[in-house]
Amino acid sequence: MIITYFKAIFVIGIISAIAFAFIRRYENMLISFILILASIITIYLIKKEQKLDR
């Protein structure tokens, strides 16, 4: 379970780094939307993985 959280933090960290790089270049609302969408997908995958662990 702890490994799942580390995986989540790692994935969100990579997504955030990419998103911030794009925001600095383009400052587009679309990239912010993609970041939020990616976070929601990541959270969904974690919940799904936790159900499989049980």
Brief write-up:
The chain is mainly alpha-helical. Helices cover 93% and strands 0% of the residues.
Overview of the structural elements:
The chain has one domain. It has helices spanning 2-26, 29-53. The protein has 54 residues and is mostly helical. The protein is built from 2 helices and no strands.
Task: Tell me the series of helices and strands, N- to C-terminal.
Answer: HH
Strand content: under 5%
The low-confidence parts are: none
Overall pLDDT score = 78
Estimated structural class: mainly alpha
Measured between the Cα atoms of the first and last residue, the distance is 10 Å
Keywords: Membrane, Transmembrane, Transmembrane helix
Transmembrane segments: 5-23, 29-46
Features:
54 residues, mainly alpha, membrane, transmembrane, transmembrane helix
Please describe the topology of this protein.
Elements: H1 2-26, H2 29-53
